[in-house]
User: Which sequence fits this backbone?
């Protein structure tokens, strides 16, 4: 007689339902990844409307590969631009120091480099999440995270009312000033990088190539690349300032921008002068956290690993988090174990990127002999410039 088929109880999935706090790029990517893994997902977002916040984003292959897995790459490419090359220039003379073409690198890393307006990426993710059955509750400000019936619940303020959203797991994707992080008892005050970012979108000047241009100077740099299908140019002017700004993002002082770049190359000044106004961000990151998770609560995106934008990786890492969390929840049968596995996979990589981004914030703004040494290295790297970060793009 054949052996009886051994009884193997089907492992219970680690979780069936998730509440995500925050509908930024991280929260929405997380909602899509978890929904596709079969979980019920609801998102609570304090804003009443998903309006245009931020400006351009560079999306590197480690992020676009995941967006392709979500089935969103074709739609993304319709609103994004595929830039031709990264062109690093001396901010004062305008002369090119080095240039690396994205095309061959995209082939090497198996997915494209894209530039896109943040609002367009957020709208695309929100639409895709809703089409998959994710409920997004806008105007819902998190006030408490509480244990509930073997699970967890997010208590939010909706107008005058307190509403509880219960789930097996709660993901705090609520940005650099995360309330969920404070709830976990790993509060880390955001660290001011003594840098301000002035952002604007301007019409593309005639004959301007579809490149990501990085102009380097003393205590400042300017990044310019096309967005909105190539119709507009996104400008990010970073300047040094010791005093933090009072507000998180605020209308920028145009006179301060023009003063900071007064002795730069005419092409840089023309670009900045074409902006009708700037929005100003104080740049903050956080020190790597000792842990991201406790019980059934975890963190994702800037809430877990806010980083300086000098590697263009904040949104990309949030998207990587989303895919890793979905994998861990699919693999493990216990929620807390799954969250710990997710944290163990993600924390070392994001900590390394946080530290590398801080390093770049110094390298970009060098002056004197160190600047000459940096420019020499840049010239030598040439087309290999992008492969310096192969561990990020291929990982
Ligand atoms: C100048 C600049 C340039 C950048 N360039 C790039 C780039 O080129 N490439 C790149 O990958 N990244 C870039 N980044 C970083 C990127 O923008 C962020 O890392 C990314 O958007 C973080 O996404 P997130 O979803 O984690 O957080 P956020 O976008 O901050 O979203 C958090 C969400 O949570 C909501 N929320 C907060 N508190 C609550 C609450 N109590 N209740 C409910 N909801 C709440 C907020 O309203 C918000 O919608 C740049 C950043 C800056 C400042």
Assistant:
């Amino acid at each position: 007689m054949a052996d009886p088929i051994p009884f193997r109880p089907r492992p219970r999935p680690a979780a069936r339902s998730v509440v995500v706090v925050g509908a930024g790029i991280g929260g929405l990517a997380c909602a899509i990844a978890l929904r596709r893994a079969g979980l019920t997902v609801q998102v609570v977002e304090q804003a009443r409307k998903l309006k245009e916040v931020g400006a351009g984003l560079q999306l590197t292959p480690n992020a676009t590969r995941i967006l392709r897995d979500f089935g969103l790459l074709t739609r993304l490419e319709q609103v994004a631009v595929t830039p031709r090359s990264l062109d690093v220039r001396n901010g004062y003379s305008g002369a090119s120091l080095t240039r690396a073409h994205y095309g061959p690198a995209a082939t090497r890393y198996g997915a494209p480099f894209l530039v896109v307006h943040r609002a367009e990426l957020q709208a695309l993710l929100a639409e895709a999440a809703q089409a998959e059955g994710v409920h997004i509750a806008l105007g819902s400000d998190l006030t408490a995270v509480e244990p509930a019936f073997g699970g967890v619940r997010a208590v939010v303020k909706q107008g005058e009312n307190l509403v509880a959203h219960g789930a097996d797991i709660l993901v705090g994707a609520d940005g650099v000033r995360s309330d969920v992080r404070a709830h976990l008892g790993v509060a880390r005050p955001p660290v001011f990088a003594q840098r301000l970012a002035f952002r604007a979108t301007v019409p593309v000047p005639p004959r301007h190539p579809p490149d990501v241009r990085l102009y380097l100077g003393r205590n400042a740099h300017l990044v310019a690349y096309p967005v909105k299908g190539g119709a507009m140019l996104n400008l990010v002017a970073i300047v040094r300032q010791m005093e933090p700004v009072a507000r998180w993002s605020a209308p920028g002082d145009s006179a301060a921008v023009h003063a900071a770049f007064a002795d730069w190359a005419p092409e840089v000044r023309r670009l900045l002068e074409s902006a009708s106004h700037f929005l100003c961000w104080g740049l903050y990151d956080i020190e790597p956290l000792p842990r991201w998770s406790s019980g059934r609560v975890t963190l994702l995106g800037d809430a877990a690993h806010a980083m300086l934008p000098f590697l263009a990786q904040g949104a990309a890492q949030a998207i990587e988090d989303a895919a890793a969390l979905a994998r861990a929840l699919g693999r493990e049968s216990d929620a807390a174990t799954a969250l710990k596995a997710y944290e163990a996979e993600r924390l070392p990589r994001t900590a390394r990127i946080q530290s590398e981004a801080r390093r770049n914030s110094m390298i970009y703004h060098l002056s004197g002999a160190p600047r000459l040494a940096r420019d020499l290295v840049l010239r030598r790297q040439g087309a290999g410039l992008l492969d310096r970060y192969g561990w990020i793009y291929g990982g």
User: Anything to note?
Assistant: The mean pLDDT is 92. DSSP finds 13 helices and 18 strands in the chain.
